[in-house]
Design a protein that fits this description.
Elements lengths: L1 E2 L2 H4 L9 E6 L5 H14 L5 H22 L2 E9 L2 E8 L4 H10 L18 H8 L2 E7 L2 E8 L1 H6 L1
Parallel strand pairs: 1-5
Antiparallel strand pairs: 2-3, 3-4, 4-6, 5-6
Helix pairs in contact: 2-3, 3-5
Length: about 160
C-alpha cells in the first residue's frame, strides 16, 4: 500500500492494542542505534523475521531523517496488536507537508528520478515505502510524527 493518511492507516484491522513502549530519544546519531535496538527487542515475536529486519531499518531511517532534517528525534513509540505493529517517531520539525509531498511523488509515474545513483542520500522515503505495509506522516502541535505499519498484508504483497 505504501504512503497513506493516518485515517486510512487506522482502517487496518489490527485489533486492540496489546502493548506500547515509549522511548525518549536524543538528537545524537546514537539515537539511531537506540531506536533499532528497542524495535528489535519489542517487535521480535510480533512480526515475521523479514519484517523484524525491515522494522529496525525503517526505525533507523526515520530517526536519521529526524536528526538530519528536524534537529533530532524526540520519541519512539512502538505499539503491538494482534494484527501487526506500528512504529512512530516524533520530532520537533515542521516538515509534515514536505514529507507528504515527497512521499506522494514516489508513486507518480510522471516524476523523473532526480536522485544521483552514486549519492549517499535521497532514498529514505522510498525505503520506508518499500519496507512497510503502510505509513503516514502527521503534523502535531509539537512537530511531526511518522508512523510505519508492519502487518500481515505486507508479507502477502511481497
Amino acid at each position: 500500500m505504501g504512503f497513506t493518511t493516518s485515517t486510512t492507516l487506522g482502517q487496518f484491522r489490527l485489533g486492540d492494542v496489546i502493548g506500547e513502549r515509549r522511548t525518549p530519544l536524543t538528537t545524537r546519531v546514537s539515537a539511531c542505534a537506540q531506536a533499532r535496538a528497542v524495535v528489535k527487542q519489542v517487535v521480535s515475536g510480533w512480526v515475521s523475521a523479514s519484517q523484524l529486519d525491515d522494522a529496525a531499518l525503517v526505525a533507523t531511517e526515520v530517526v536519521a531523517n529526524a536528526i538530519n532534517h528536524a534537529g533530532g528525534a524526540e520519541e519512539l513509540t512502538v505499539r503491538w496488536y494482534p494484527g501487526g505493529v506500528t512504529i512512530s517517531v516524533r520530532d520537533a520539525g515542521r516538515g509534515a507537508d514536505t514529507i507528504a509531498r515527497r512521499a506522494s511523488a514516489l508513486h507518480d509515474p510522471t516524476r523523473s528520478d532526480s536522485t544521483d545513483q552514486l549519492s549517499e542520500g535521497g532514498r529514505g522515503l522510498a525505503l520506508v515505502d518499500h519496507c512497510t505495509t503502510a505509513w503516514c506522516v502527521d503534523p502535531v502541535p509539537a512537530g511531526t510524527v511518522v508512523t510505519a505499519l508492519f502487518g500481515p498484508e505486507k508479507d502477502v504483497a511481497r
